[in-house]
Amino acid sequence: MTATGPQLCSIAWAGRPVEIEHQWIETGPSDGPLLVFLHEGLGSVSMWRDFPARLCERLGWQGLVYSRPGYGQSTPRPLDQSLTPDFLERQAVEVLPALLLALGVDGHQRPLWLLGHSDGGSIGLIHAARFADNVAGLVVLAPHIMVEDISVTSIARAREAYLNTDLRERLARHHCDPDAAFWGWNDVWLSPAFRDWSIETMLPAITCPVLAVQGQDDEYGTLQQVFGIAAAAPQTAVEVFASCGHSPHKDQTERLLDLVATFTGERSTNHANI
Questions:
Q1: Considering 81, 101, 192, 230, which has the largest number of Cβ atoms within 10 A of its Cβ?
Q2: pLDDT band at 98, cuts 50/70/90?
């Protein structure tokens, strides 16, 4: 596996310069497909562990892993600035395009694929809907297209765990400011203003192939999330993993590697025909 060490890239966002932690995985040609990894609500470059490198090596593709502002070693979120209910949309249509531009990535020049987990899956869906001609394919793991009671209940439990267990210490291994990372995510998800959030009306604009994977035992969402994607974007292939929770890439790594390799292999032989 060939991966560079994490680096920082500066972008302008929200009226200020922001440093974005990112890591390149050099396991494919520079003009071949690029797979961009979009982390979960409390994720970061390091929290993916070796999954991106293993998948990119399997595919023979380059990979790009990054930490969103406020996560990992990227510029922390100021504690006096709360996330707004459109925070996922802003990541998809402002931050991700700015990062790709800063790094010289152009989906018109090479096939650009996105792989997102949880909140990252939602960001991938929004980006693919908004920039349909720039995305060759999309893989989403346990994505959110709407807020469900099960999501709110589990996120409320996470708040209790952060206050009463060693969760803060564990997150501190991956984030330079674990409080900013945790409370930004937790507060907005539990806010009344976010309860009606939905991206369902955006989904029909997605034209690329979509693979949507969810665990049967996902504690953060029902299967209506992935089946809702397929209803709005019929080109979506849905896979439900039995005996699997919210993180298919951790719970059933080998099965997911096989599935993504098959899915992308069948759809990326000729980018012009995607």
A1: 230
A2: very high
**Domains of the chain (ranges, CATH numbers):** 7-273 (3.40.50.1820)
Cα–Cα distance between 9 and 103 in angstroms, integer?
A: 8
Question: Do the beta carbons of residue 108 and residue 272 sit within 8 Å?
Answer: no
- State mean pLDDT over 230-239: 98
In b/e form, how buried is each residue of 85-94, taking b as 16+ CB within 10 angstroms? bebbbbbbbe
* 54 close to 202: Cβ distance less than 8 angstroms: no
- Tell me the sheet residues that pair with 117: 141
The span from the CA of 139 to the CA of 224, in Å, is 17
**Residue 121, both tokens:** 């899956």
Q: Is residue 2 pLDDT above 70, yes or no?
A: no
Using alpha carbons, select from 243, 246, 270, 248 the residue that is nearest to residue 260.
248
Dist CA 270 CA 273 (whole Å): 6
Residue from 119, 45, 132, 47 nearest 89 by CA: 119
pTM over 0.85: yes
Decide: helix, strand or coil at residue 137.
strand
Q: HSE of 127 in the Cβ direction (CA atoms, 13 Å)?
A: 36
pLDDT for position 81 = 84
Q: Give the residue ranges of DSSP H helices in the chain.
A: 51-59, 87-90, 96-102, 119-130, 149-164, 167-172, 178-189, 224-232, 248-251, 253-267
Mean pLDDT of 195-214: 98
CA 20 – CA 36 distance, rounded (Å): 14
